[in-house]
Every structure is written in C-alpha cells, then in structure tokens.
Design brief:
The chain is of the alpha+beta class. It has helices at about 10-45, 55-80, 135, and strands at about 85, 90-100, 100-110, 115-120, 130.
Length: about 140
C-alpha cells in the first residue's frame, strides 16, 4: 500500500498535475510502441540481406533508450505524487482513499474530466462505481 491516503477533495486537487504527467507519459509510450513496431518491420523486411542497416538500427535503439528513460522518470514522478499508475497506455491511475473504514481506490483515466469513479482494491477497473459526492463528504 502507498504511504498516502487521499480524501476525494485532495485527489481532485492533485488531478491537474497528475493528468499532465500522465498525458506526457502516454505520448512517450505511444512513440515507443511505434518505434518497436518500426524495428520489427525493419527486421522482417530485410533492408540489407536480412538485416537493417547498422546506422538505422543504432539510431532507432538510441531513440528507444532515450524514450524508455523518459518514461521511467515519469512513472517514478507519478509514484512520488502518491498515485498508483495502473495502465500507461490508457492513462489509468488510482488514488488510495478511505471509505467506510476500508481502503479503496479513487479511479481516473485520461480523457475523463474529473475523478468520478471509485472501486474496491481487489475489484479493479471492472468494479468501478460512480462517486456520489454526498457519500464521500
């Protein structure tokens, strides 16, 4: 379990900062996916007697390494904000909160306007329930 437990208000106040980092991370992951696909395509197409040219391969690997390092830094930053990254491609993150004496997750994914969902820790995304503000105080 993370060190921090958020109220709904605290999680919502942190959302703009978290969302900004998540969106940058999504872009890095999307670009990594493209570069991995390009590398695979280069290997399959056999640019020169079955192998990509050394220069092309080196440039591709260098860009992949750079993006992987950037993505890892962003993942660590999200963790430092007290938020759990669940799926970088979907931009899915959870904040630990307390509800009726037990820990649950407040759930948000990129594209949602606010944190409007929660779920039991063991249930995951499939168990999301709408937040009724009056129940969360």
């Amino acid at each position: 379990m993370p060190e921090r437990v958020f109220t709904l208000a605290q999680a919502r106040r942190s959302l703009p900062n978290v969302a900004a980092v998540v969106i940058v991370l999504q872009r890095r992951v999307q670009r990594l996916d493209q570069l991995h696909a390009l590398g695979e395509s280069m290997r399959r197409s056999g640019l020169t007697d079955g192998q990509p040219t050394v220069a092309d391969d080196r440039e591709l690997r260098a860009e992949i390494t750079k993006l992987e390092e950037q993505a890892q830094t962003l993942v660590e930053h999200i963790g430092e904000l007290g938020v759990e990254l669940k799926d970088p491609r979907r931009g899915l993150v959870d904040w630990v909160a307390e509800r009726e004496g037990r820990q649950v997750y407040l759930c948000w994914q990129a594209g949602e306007r606010t944190i409007g969902w929660w779920h039991e820790i063991a249930e995951g995304f499939a168990g999301r329930q709408r937040i009724a503000v009056e129940e969360w105080g």
